[in-house]
Specification:
By secondary structure, the chain is mainly α. It has 2 helices and 2 strands, in the order H-E-E-H. The model has no long low-confidence stretch (mean pLDDT 88).
Length: 98
């Protein structure tokens, strides 16, 4: 049976582990956005991107409020990536050397 102190320590450990996963994910997303020319921390581009965790340790990334032009740029990139992903298997079907 765990004591209250042990339970609190386990909850803190879960929170910190979730926060680390969320921070790592936010960092990687920031790097991807930078490659796309979107500057995280810039009020006109992407003001806020933060890793967070619930008290239970569930990680999540807070994206903040994103300007419409930045959101459209991200939507265009995602739509393009999905269309390329879907077209690759079709192209392979027509190439006998693959």
């Amino acid at each position: 049976m765990t004591t209250d102190i042990e339970a609190a320590a386990q909850q803190a450990d879960a929170f910190l582990a979730g926060k680390k996963r969320a921070d790592d994910t936010a960092f990687m997303l920031g790097r991807v956005l930078k490659e796309m020319g979107i500057r995280v921390g810039d009020r006109d581009s992407w003001p806020q991107l933060t890793g967070r965790a619930s008290l239970s340790g569930e990680p999540y990334v807070y994206l903040g409020t994103v300007p419409l032009m930045t959101a459209r740029k991200l939507i265009d990139a995602l739509v393009y990536a999905e269309s390329v992903k879907r077209s690759v298997p079709e192209q392979r079907a027509f190439r006998p050397d693959v």
